[in-house]
Amino acid sequence: MLATGCALGAEPSSKSAPQPVTAPGTVPATAGLYPARRNPAFVLDRELTDEQVAGATINYYEFSTDKQAVASLARGFRTHPWSVEVTGLVEKPRTWDLDALVRAFPLEERLYRHRCVERWAMAVPWTGFPLARFLAENRPLSAARFVRFVSFLRPEEAPGQKEQTWYPWPYFEGLTMAEAMHDLTLLVTGIYGKPLPPHHGAPLRLVVPWKYGYKSIKGIVRVELTAERPPTFWNAMAPMEYGFTSNVDPEVSHPRWSQATETLIGTDRVVPTLPYNGYGDLVARLYA
Ligand SMILES: Nc1nc2c(c(=O)[nH]1)N[C@H]1C(S)=C(S)[C@@H](COP(=O)(O)O)O[C@H]1N2
Ligand SMILES: [Mo]
Known about the structure:
Blueprint: H1 51-54, H2 70-74, E1 83-88, E2 94-97, H3 98-104, E3 108-115, E4 120-130, H4 131-137, E5 146-151, H5 159-163, E6 172-176, H6 177-180, E7 186-191, E8 194-195, E9 205-207, E10 220-226, H7 233-237, E11 261-264, E12 270-272, H8 280-283
Parallel strand pairs: 1-10, 4-11
Antiparallel strand pairs: 1-2, 3-4, 4-7, 5-6, 5-10, 7-8, 7-9, 11-12
This protein binds the ligand Nc1nc2c(c(=O)[nH]1)N[C@H]1C(S)=C(S)[C@@H](COP(=O)(O)O)O[C@H]1N2 and molybdenum atom.
The site of molybdenum atom has 6 residues, from loops.
């Protein structure tokens, strides 16, 4: 699926043939940076989810609400070239080319649990780097207290955006500065040792493993530092059901279901949900 319409996916015709710096398609020119070195600090209490299974249960409403349909609907979505705008309360607003961004920060692999608010969970190897490094490079002003993230708006290519007109596209999310600067919070460019495929949020997504999955926004095109708490997509849609903070908590039920347990996708195992999705040792102090 990665090779769709992509120059870099083809067999090289000659060793000396010049490689384009920026090949349009779904595979970035930085593909050679994968797999990245695994950071041994992040160990799991459960098996990694099979790659095919993780890729077959996808929430990406820009393409479809049908989790099984997203991968094929997103296949061929142009994720390269891509740029990310950094605006708001930073010393110098700037627009990053994605390839330059990926080269500017050392990539690492981390095994993280992921818990969707719908009660399914997985464990996957993400490739990326701490959001804190990226923010530091963009020099936030001291007045910055929150970070707002915005996804792409391309309804002609993303059928869910075109057809589901009741959603306030593009998707948007936010974190407090302390959450954004926490080492667990990753900007992610890859999964399973390869660049992200479109359905997992290529070419750039957030991963915040102690929060419900919807906080981990995919397809980011804009990062904005703000003084005020930014609105978030699911909170705007259903404020009684989805808050801003949205930390995984087995003791706080969703209005329509308990959050005490979760199903590990690809298995029939139902396991207890852990406070902060098992990352309490690292993050509980943020909320003390
Ligand atoms: N832009 C965007 N980001 C998104 C979503 C979405 O619909 N659009 N869904 C969220 C939800 S609900 C979850 S559980 C995760 C799923 O990530 P995965 O499909 O890579 O497992 O992405 C999150 N990020
Ligand atoms: Mo989710």
